[in-house]
Specification:
- The structure is a single chain.
- This protein is 68% helix and 6% strand.
- Strands 1-2-4-3 form a four-stranded mixed β-sheet, sandwiched between helices.
- The radius of gyration is 21 Å and the shape is elongated.
- The protein is mainly α.
Length: 303
């Protein structure tokens, strides 16, 4: 029991550290993009200050309201005990077993079976499931999925997952703005005439490359925190339900379902228990934030 508590505290400490690192990396990327915007418009300080102020303000808003923002983005609606009693009681019971405050329950009106958890800490946790999941899972399978999401809340995964989603979203937004700056104001941008054509052209080409690579860097940062946390959540879910096969069977059903989740994008895909994208491919597999389903199920069945 003591060893289990120590492992749990280590997981929380690691996730808090990852959240801090993500914030630092986020601000560094935002500052870099801001410098490039400043370079194009002829004032490095203006670009840097604009990007840092925007990034910091956005990060603060996202930290305190990020859970609600992500639920709204996914089209999730809060539910009551009256509307979905089975879901409500499952969430409530597993929260008691996990020793965390009962998360708010949400439902997404979508035929694709899927689920995710979010929030900045267990006191502000929330779990959303799709109507497809509720319709296609039996009691044990639903319990397995909810336990997996409850484990993310218990382990504080939700904080780093939320920050990663918001970070990738804003990096894509700013890099898009940077590319548009190059297109509309780049070659004639203020202050450019004082420099030699060669160095200016090199800086512009480097800036374009960085603007294109920024979203990819964000995806790689997100990927680095994703796959391991899924296995850790599985282990805790197995302890909570004492039935790892429930989650294994749920994953089989989810992976075989042909429906693709409608309200999602690359910035939020890693939040869901299973990738919401159904199209396969080498690149998508390489940057998938989820473990291969076959390996995932084998691990659960071996527990």
């Amino acid at each position: 029991m003591v060893q289990s508590k120590l492992v749990h505290f280590d997981e929380i400490r690691n996730n808090n550290f990852k959240s801090f690192l993500l914030f630092i990396l986020f601000m560094m990327l935002i500052a870099g993009l801001g410098l490039l915007v400043g370079l194009i418009w002829g004032n490095l300080y203006f670009g840097l200050i604009l990007a840092v102020v925007f990034g910091f303000a956005y990060a603060l808003i996202a930290y305190f309201a990020g859970g609600n923002m992500l639920m709204a983005l996914a089209g999730a609606k809060p539910v009551t005990k009256k509307e979905y009693p089975h879901l409500y009681h499952t969430v409530e019971g597993l929260a008691i077993a996990a020793g965390v405050p009962t998360p708010k329950a949400y439902v997404i009106n979508d035929p694709a079976p899927n689920a995710f958890a979010t929030g900045r800490d267990p006191e502000h946790g929330a779990i959303a499931v799709t109507t497809g999941l509720l319709e296609k899972m039996n009691r044990e399978e639903l319990e397995g999925v909810v336990a997996h999401e409850m484990a993310h809340i218990k382990n504080y995964d939700i904080r780093s997952m939320m920050i990663a989603a918001i970070m990738v979203g804003v990096i894509i937004l700013l890099s898009d703005f940077l590319l548009r700056s190059f297109i509309w104001g780049g070659m004639s941008g203020g202050g450019g005439g004082n420099r030699g054509g060669g160095p200016q052209l090199i800086l512009i080409l480097v800036g374009i490359a960085l603007a294109i690579l920024a979203p990819l860097i964000g995806e790689m940062i997100k990927l680095s925190i994703s796959r391991k946390r899924e296995y850790a959540a599985d282990a805790r879910a197995a302890v909570l339900t004492r039935n790892p096969r429930g989650l294994a069977n749920a994953l089989k059903k989810i992976s075989q379902d042909p429906n693709e989740l409608r309200n999602t994008n690359k910035a939020t895909a890693h939040l869901f228990i299973s990738s919401p994208f159904r199209k396969k491919g080498f690149i998508r597999g390489l940057f998938s934030t989820h473990p291969p389903v076959g390996d995932w199920i084998k691990r659960l069945e071996a527990m």
